[in-house]
Amino acid sequence: MTNASLPDPSKLPFGQAKFVSLAQRGRAGMEFLGSLQSYVGGTVRQRARADFNADPEGAALAQNWSQRNEPWSERIAKAKAVAERSITYRYDRLMQRYVAEEVYTKGIPATEARRKEAEALYAQPVPKSGGSLDLDPTVPIPKYHSETEWHLMPGGWDGYDLYGITMGSGVGPLVFARGGFAAVEAGDDLRQQRIDVAKQFPKKSYGRVYEPGCGGFGTLAAVHQVFPEAELVGSDLSPHLLCQGHMAAERMGVKVSFKQRDARDTKEPSNSFDGVIMYALQHEMPIDVNMDTLKEALRILKPGGDLVMSDPPPFAAVHPLQAVVLDWDTEHRGEPFFTVTREVEWAKVMKDLGFVNVEAYSLGAQGYPYVVRGSKPE
Ligand SMILES: C[S@@+](CC[C@H](N)C(=O)[O-])C[C@H]1O[C@@H](n2cnc3c(N)ncnc32)[C@H](O)[C@@H]1O
Fold this sequence. Notes:
Layout: H1 24-54, H2 56-63, H3 72-83, H4 87-112, H5 115-123, E1 132-134, H6 143-146, H7 163-175, H8 190-198, E2 208-212, H9 218-226, E3 231-236, H10 239-251, E4 256-260, E5 273-279, H11 287-300, E6 301-311, H12 320-332, H13 338-342, H14 346-353, E7 356-362, E8 370-375
Parallel strand pairs: 1-4, 2-3, 2-5, 3-4, 5-6
Antiparallel strand pairs: 6-8, 7-8
Helix pairs in contact: 1-4, 1-7, 3-12, 4-7, 8-9
The structure holds S-adenosylmethionine (SAM).
């Protein structure tokens, strides 16, 4: 599907997905997929890692992985060759791809079976909590965004009018929440990870916080939990995700301004935010877009304001098998920028752009969530 299948933003429904329960058959299918993914991403992956370490070439790679004097493409190719000697690793990959495709093969028909209920829900008036939704159809949607089927989602973020239901009632709670895919370890708590990342803001309180590429209300909800006093503004390119986010925030009684904007051009005044948070945004944008987004974040931050950025870890910060796993998503799970963005040392980029007090570190044992944070000079 292409841009032509994007819904008209003015006709997009509002709704919070979890109030529609998907058809039993689809739900059961997704529960199976969630179990399968967490099993392969946990137990099976551990065996694959043992195979990797038992291979003399793998053990040698693991020993000096981050210091090797070779481009990342060569290092990954060597590690991949070792990984693929393990039948366990190959089995893990086969199942990962199967789950990634199958969640939509099952999830979309299960959602369609509930179309009437979904449409009735969307027709309900939005409760008022003081937030706003500013959809701007004049914002240019870059091709990389509209033409990618992210995570193998047919049509991409805006490719199906009921994705809010598919994700919120099915794929999200029954599959993604079990972990075991990409950088997310089996059993990881995605909600808690966002809260842990919000806690990486170094000050005790924040006045105004901005999230470019907010999608819906996931990370801003975490920011609200950690800094209930903060005024929240979130922006994204996807009208569908923004509508879902607005509805969720209003229902939860949290005032958020959602705006359709490109992260490179927020249209916010300079020096107007105390904090900027970017969560799982970097790996969905090409390098040049990332550079411009960082410059824009620096511009809108007040002097002394802080940026907290979290994304999958760079190749340098993980075991070589984990690097191969991250690289795999680029070709096999609709993540075209995973590899190029994992090769970069973002802390250095931020310093070069003028951020100060820049630090990069992992919160989880296998490198995820990975945080890079820094501040605008006083
Ligand atoms: C993986 S989602 C993460 C969403 C959210 N930050 C979260 O924590 O759940 C990546 C988001 O980046 C958005 N995005 C990608 N390129 C963008 C751009 N140039 N400007 C604004 N948003 C963008 C996508 O539409 C998508 O919602």
